[in-house]
Amino acid sequence: MLKMLKRRPAISNDRIPPAIDLHRLTFAYPNLPPALCDLDLQVNVGERVGLIGPNGAGKTTLFLTLCGVLKPISGEIRLFGLPVVPGNFRPDVGLVFQNPNDQLFSPSVWDDVAFGVQNMGFPPDAVDRRVREVLDLAGVKALADRPPHHLSGGQKRMVAIASVLAMKPKLVVYDEPSANLDLRSRRRLIQFLQASRETLVIASHDLELLLEVCDRTILLDGGCIVADGIPTDIMGDATLMEAHGLEKPHSLVPHAHATQDLNADGQSCNSSYPI
Q: Residue 150 CB: number of other CB atoms within 10 A?
């Protein structure tokens, strides 16, 4: 069973810097137009942000610049008040890859989850304590001795998340976390994300997941922020969504329910009403 944690509210005041603070961030791959164009963005501590947009919008590129994997052409990235230096390891920021096979490489689940903590220089007893804690939190404690390549897609996903959480990041960015999951694994992931304490940014085409988990949505297209606001307002705007290669989530589309009424002759007639 997942350990349910009380959600921490978003924090925003003059004394606490934003979890993410981008100023005129621009990035381009060689010989290609900019993938990120002059982005200005703030995400406060405790927020849960859903990042949406068509393929090629710049979502993964944004995540890689946040983590210092890619060096921007211009602009500034500050996380919790400190500048991001490309190539420098930031344990307070964790990235969960779209494909857990890109993240899991050790001979056992235990080794994969312990890897980051060991490289942070913690003594063996502290490593052991953290690994046990996050395996229990993610509901995969029983898998500790299993080779990752023997696990199901949902199990791999939760192990990948545990390997990130073992370093106790304050910000976790998820790239398509529900990709290739069955319904049971997807529901378990949603419950886990709802219970998370960290500041979250989740890029996903699973818009229903974002509606359940996030309190803010950012629409990115062509490397630019097109819209930023309440998830139901943005994703419920069919014209806006269609203009950027997306569809309004099914749960926000009115549906008709048939009712049976009697006409003046006592015969039944069907009618419908939107809900």
A: 10
Q: Are strands 224-229 and 48-52 parallel, antiparallel or unpaired?
A: unpaired
Q: State how far the Cα of 76 lies from the Cα of 26, in Å rounded to an integer.
A: 9
Cα gap 204→189, rounded to integer Å: 13
d(CA 76, CA 68): 12
pLDDT tens for the chain, 275 residues long, are 343 333 344 555 567 899 999 999 999 999 999 999 999 999 999 999 999 999 999 999 999 999 999 999 999 999 999 999 988 888 899 999 989 999 999 999 999 999 999 989 999 999 999 999 999 988 899 999 999 999 998 899 999 999 999 999 999 999 999 988 889 889 989 999 999 999 999 999 999 999 999 999 999 999 999 999 999 999 999 999 999 999 999 999 886 554 455 555 555 555 443 44
Q: What is the rounded distance in angstroms from the CA atom of residue 204 to the CA atom of residue 110?
A: 28
For the chain, report the end-to-end CA distance as a whole number of angstroms.
Answer: 35
Residue ranges of domains in the chain, CATH in brackets? 16-90+206-275 (3.40.50.300)
pTM of the model: 0.85
Q: How far apart are CA 59 and CA 82, in angstroms?
A: 22
Alpha carbon distance 175, 154 (integer Å): 15
